[in-house]
Amino acid sequence: MTTDRIISTDGLGRDFLVGSRLRRRRVTALRDMTLQVDRGEAVGLLGPNGAGKSTAIKMLTGVLVPTAGRATVCGLDPVRRRRELAHRTGVVFGQRSQLWWDLPLRQSFDLHGAIHRVPAAAYAQRLDECVALLDLSGFLDTPVRQLSLGQRMRGEITAALLHAPELLVLDEPTIGLDLASKERLRTFLATVNARGDVTLLLTTHDLPDVERLCRRVVVVDHGRVLVDDDLNTLRERFAGNRTLVVELTEPAPPLAGLPGVVDVGVQAQGLRQRLEFDRRTSAAELIADVARRVQLRDVAVDEPSIEDLVRTLYQRS
Amino acid sequence: MAEPAGSAVVYGRIVASRLRGQLAYRTSFALDLTAQAIGQTIELFVIVVVFTQVSTLGGFTAGEVLLIFGLAACGFGLADLCVGQVERLPEYIRTGEFDVMLLRPLGTLPQLLSADVALKRVGRLGVGLAVYGWSLARLDLAWTPLRALVAVTAPLVGAVVLGALWVAANVVSFWVVDGREVANAVTYGSSFTTSYPISVYGPWLRRLMCYAVPGAFVAYFPALALLDRPDPLGLPVALRYCAPLVAVVAVLAAGALWRQGVRHYQGTGS
Questions:
Q1: Nearest 10 degrees: CA dihedral of B40, B44, B49, B53?
Q2: Which residues of A touch B10 (CB under 8 A)?
Q3: Do A220 and A281 lie in a common domain?
Q4: Which DSSP string corresponds to A215-238?
Q5: SS3 A280
Q6: Interface list for A 23-42 with B (CB within 8 A)
Q7: Domain housing A44
């Protein structure tokens, strides 16, 4: 085993028995997940509700025992070495607090530091950094129960980082946050990950989270891993067409017959046109072609969104 | 495994933070404390009322029964203060808080016990200590070093036995969605049954309390040791001094059950 492998699973699976004693059914929440994550990576775990994302995370953090396969996290068996693993990982659940409701944020952090036995100097340094980057100073002395959701999430992430974990697991970290708060969290997580000492594994419904943070995406549905690939490769393989949006100086009829264009959409009475073109066509050539026919005011190229990508994947599976 | 001294510091800080929160609301705290003390005093009145009708109870005089009652109340009060939080286990499981405990590098049981220490429970303990102290002073006991040791350790040992019993009873919540009723029956049943000489109960309940659910070791046997009087049931004298041994066994059994419960939880999810 190499030292820079942080998560390694082999055929990881989990069944649940559901229903009453009389009508017990076996339901598979996750099957045959084989996943290798190296130190410093940022991996997005995507999938619809009930796809098995949370089950996977619970098994990786020692909360749940697998019914098939095995997992190794930070070189440890998560269930048997739960407490040791807890020192080396940080976990943030978007809908479940790790802070103490009745304590001011600062005291919650102090307790976290004590529980993880963080040396005083290191603790002060990490806390100061989070306070500065996440702008916590305004509510450090506010009891957690009085914090807004955005403030609380910033607090949760700080707490999860105080013991300098090697792996930070985030389950729906931006759920329910407003745009500004989401953006602040993404920027912070990107900064922390870019330094290379924290590996990120996050589940989310929020595709911009992934576009912003993750170089690699694992898509899970119905308990199966559909895709595990680099985000850019995925875009190329599945998403296919890009869209050239052209703004014209005066209205024009639809720009039909351009090489490589598969669909033309007309907006604003012909002042804006959306030209969907295939991967083989270069955006530069297409812009030149368009410029020969009409006068351009502005152009933009839209990459396919992950929504489209995931939708394509779901349809294929 | 973490070194015990460091753990003690961590739990000390957790408990201290809980207590600070409770003392912040002084009036509410004073009312809670009084309510707890009144609850225990009502149980005391029951005994006083009974003795207006009879002169002995199960072969024991009023003063002797009060000694048993005081010992049981001390044990219960102490256990309630330190272990009473275990009855909130179903809530922690239902809300997913138990997952959060599994994510911390600490044992789950100590976390649960320290998570919500309720200082108001001191009220109950206060009444117990008063009755126990008053009984010891008034009964004119023949003091020996061994008896002095029993007098001091009996409330602690009783608390350990009761605490272990409650933990064991609450483990059922890992299997049954709302196991609270079962657990409460044991918790509050143990308060009631340990407060009287076991000689007042029928033979099956007596045997249960001596040999299965060791309630008789909370107050009855230590009281016999202190009173130095014959057992109306004629049980072996050695039993009077067995409480610490019983406590150790009870703790080990409760710990094993708890681990089994957590394993089941990790096996089924919430």
A1: 140
A2: 114-115, 117
A3: no
A4: SEEEEEETTEEEEEEEHHHHIIII
A5: coil
A6: none
A7: 5-237
Residues A217 and A247 in one domain: no
Quote the longest CA-to-CA distance of chain A. Answer: 74
- Please list every residue in chain B whose beta carbon sits closer than 8 Å to the beta carbon of residue A114: 9-10, 13
**Do residues B63 and B135 lie in contact, with contact meaning Cβ atoms separated by under 8 Å?**
yes
Structure token digits, residue A173: 């970290």
Sign for the pseudo-dihedral over CA of A130, A135, A139, A141 = positive
B4-23 helix and A105-115 helix, angle to the nearest 10 degrees: 160
Q: What is the pLDDT of residues A55-87, one digit of tens each?
A: 999 999 999 999 999 999 999 999 999 999 999
Within 8 A of B102 by CB-CB distance, chain A residues are: 61-63, 82
Q: Can you tell me the distance from the alpha carbon of B69 to that of B64, in angstroms, rounded to the nearest whole number?
A: 9
pLDDT of residue B199: 87
Contact in structure between B89 and B170 (CB atoms under 8 Å)? yes
Question: Both A102 and A217 in a single domain?
Answer: yes
Closest CA in chain B for residue A108: B17
Contact B58, B205 (CB under 8 A): no
Chain B residues in contact with chain A using a Cβ-Cβ cutoff of 8 Å: 2, 6, 9-10, 13-14, 17, 21, 96-97, 99-100, 102-107, 263, 266-269
> Within this chain, do residues A294 and A198 fall inside the same structural domain, yes or no?
no
Question: Which DSSP state fits B223?
Answer: H
- DSSP E strands, chain A: 5-18, 25-38, 42-46, 68-73, 89-93, 167-171, 199-204, 216-221, 224-230, 242-248, 261-267, 272-277, 296-302
Last residue of a domain, one of A216, A237, A258: A237
Contact yes or no for A44/A213 (Cβ under 8 A): yes
Domains in chain B: boundaries: 4-268
pLDDT for B194-228, tens place per residue? 888 988 888 888 888 777 788 899 999 999 999 99
CA distance B47 to B29: 28
Residue B1 has pLDDT above 50, yes or no: no
Q: What angle do CA B227, B231, B233 make, to 5 degrees?
A: 155
- Residue ending a domain, among A188, A219, A237, is A237
A100 and A210 in one domain? Answer: yes
Structural domain count, chain A: 2
Same domain, A157 and A302: no
Beta bridge partners of A38: A5
Report in angstroms the alpha-carbon separations of A146 from A100, A101, A105, A140, A141: 12, 9, 10, 11, 10
B149 and B225 Cβ atoms separated by less than 8 Å? no
Which CATH number belongs to the domain containing residue A11 in this structure?
A: 3.40.50.300
- Within 13 Å and on the Cβ side, how many CA atoms surround A287? 15
Supply B235's token pair. 């049980």
Say yes or no: A56 and A203 in one domain: yes
User: Model confidence at B165, in pLDDT bands (50, 70, 90)?
Assistant: very high
Length of chain B (residues): 270
Residues A305 and A211 in one domain: no
Inspect the interface and report whether the beta carbons of A114 and B97 lie closer than 8 Å: no
